[in-house]
Amino acid sequence: SDAMPHGGELEIKLHSQALDKDDLEDLPELTPGAYGVIQVRDTGKGMDESALSLVFEPFYTTKHRGATAGLGLATVHGIIKQHKGHISVESRCGVGTTFTVYLPLSDKHILNEHNPDDTFNPEGIFVLLVEDSSPVRKQVAVLLRRKGMIVKSASNAEEALEMKGEDPIDLLITDLIMPGMNGRELYEKLSETTPNIPALFMSGYSGDILSQNGTLEGGLTFLRKPFTMDSLYEAISKALSSAQRSES
């Protein structure tokens, strides 16, 4: 809706491609091999050269101040680089934009890991879920309720503080970086009335604020997006256990 406010065409293509040394002259960070190629094209407003040069920079946005954190494409770029892939963008003002993603294909068989679902039982705990992405918020809420948790969800920190009321919170699950008050600031605000509240922070952003072992500064539990159902449940269990150890 932002790129094509008056409608248009959105085309998504997916195919596999074998790349050799000659093919990679313009992609020096990739190695020869098989890749999955995802191409997303719109017929929207497009971007000028200035915007194109900054499009993957964290916190850069063309939207009005306060509308977004400017981390969407920076997060996409980080995830693709972590998986040894490549993303490029072509755009013309008034014509549209095309993003092309290369991800290396693996010939290894992925084994099913142990499923903690059989032993994890947080039924009845009250969860305050804060996530500015509506699809993510709804999906996480479904997974929480599937385990018997009671969920109140909000799209930002300010809404969460109003929604909380006098209800005791057993667990805070929040996106770390949001427009307005961020997740860490929300946690500190709630801690004024609920000390040592169990908290799980989510983000796709992999900046210096995160440590290598998956925790935030101060030992708080962090879950990197995208995540699986099992990793969500494991992170919740870790957050609850960490809070219990802090109280004892």
Detailed description of the structure:
The protein is of the alpha/beta class. Helix content is 27%, strand content 24%. A five-stranded parallel β-sheet has the order 6-5-7-8-9, sandwiched between helices.
Topology at a glance:
Layout lengths: L9 E10 L13 E10 L6 H6 L17 H11 L3 E7 L3 E9 L21 E5 L3 H13 L3 E5 L2 H8 L6 E5 L7 H9 L7 E5 L17 E4 L4 H19 L1
Parallel strand pairs: 5-6, 5-7, 7-8, 8-9
Antiparallel strand pairs: 1-2, 2-4, 3-4
The number of E-state strands comes to 9
Shape: globular
Pick out the low-confidence regions: 111-117, 208-215
Taken as a percent bin, the fraction of beta residues is 15-25%
Helices and strands, in N-to-C order?
Answer: EEHHEEEHEHEHEEH
Query: What kind of oligomer do you see?
Result: single chain
Largest sheet: 5 strands, parallel
Q: What's the Cα radius of gyration?
A: 21 Å
Order of strands side by side in the largest beta sheet?
6-5-7-8-9
Rounded to the nearest angstrom, the distance between the terminal CA atoms is 50 Å
**Structural class by secondary-structure content:** alpha/beta
Overall mean pLDDT stands at 83
Number of helices: 6
- Helical fraction equals 25-40%
Characteristics:
single chain; 248 residues; alpha/beta; five-stranded parallel beta sheet; four-stranded antiparallel beta sheet; 6 helices; 9 strands; 27% helix; 24% strand
